Amino acid sequence: MQQATAGKPKPSASSGVVPVFLRPGTIFLWIFLLVMAFLTLFPVLVAILGSFKTNAELTAGATILPKTWHFSNYVEAWKTANFSRYTWNSLFISITTTAGTLLVASMAAYGVERLRFAGRRMYVFIQAATMFISVGPLVLHPQFRLMVTLHLQTSLWGVVILLVSAHAATYFILYSFVRAIPRELDEAAKIDGSSMLGTYWRIILPLLGPGLGVSALFTFRAAWNEYIMPLVFTMSQPNLQPLTVGLSNLRYGASAAAQTHYMMAGACLSILPILLVYVFANKSFMQMTAGSIKG
């Protein structure tokens, strides 16, 4: 009996098993992801292709691909909109806002998590309220009046200070990272004679690397794309306008004709710094997601 059964071929363990990539759930997931990727990337693709068209061809919208690739649109957009000056202004606002926000938010997160003081819960409540209560343009006038009182209404520093003050989202991101750092490190540093500020600078801040990278990307993107506030503060000083405001100068030419193709080219140029920042901050994203899985 054993010899008879031994002569028969054993059934394969994989027979009748559908490969993972052919399962209905996997196929549906891939279709969903491809559709979402298409909906996300298609407007960007249209803008890139439109930046190489003529204004008449872009307005007609007959074809997606340009009949003739006009690379000169980028040169004209750079010259017409004074892109070098506007790019410097945008970089100044974005870099200083990012550095200031990370410094203020990380110090606040460390202080609130490690210290116990009166009004601590109220402080956290106010931080959360600024995230869920959107006041938008309603506070522009009092903010501008405040900067007038400080004599900063004619400087980009006024815009930077106001953007740094809106650091609630960054605060909560870094607060969760600070809570994950063992308090034993603070106690060991205190025994070695380190002050609280020294512990923050030498121990806590280096351990916040992934959180700082992610927060820097979000903060830089928000500051780079800010439009309303720089517009209000630079109405009387065009030389201080950032790219988001300066791009509007490409809308109409000397003959008051719409120049949509130049605006497309300028918009594509303004995307490049964000892509570069993402490339450098991508490692922080990988560290953050890798650390969330254990086992």
Automatic annotation (TrEMBL):
Keywords per UniProt: Cell membrane, Membrane, Transmembrane, Transmembrane helix, Transport
UniProt subcellular location: Cell membrane
Main location: membrane
Alphabetical list of CDD domains matching this protein: TM_PBP2
Any GO BP annotation: transmembrane transport
Membrane topology value: Multi-pass membrane protein
A Pfam family per the record: BPD_transp_1
Cytoplasm as UniProt keyword: no
GO CC terms, sorted: plasma membrane
Transmembrane residue ranges: 27-49, 91-112, 124-144, 156-178, 199-224, 262-281
Ranges in a coiled coil: none
Occurrences of domain ABC transmembrane type-1 (ranges): 87-281
PANTHER family per UniProt: ABC TRANSPORTER PERMEASE PROTEIN MG189-RELATED (PTHR43744:SF12), ABC TRANSPORTER PERMEASE PROTEIN MG189-RELATED-RELATED (PTHR43744)
Similarity-based family: Belongs to the binding-protein-dependent transport system permease family.
Protein name: Carbohydrate ABC transporter permease
Originating organism: Paenibacillus oceani
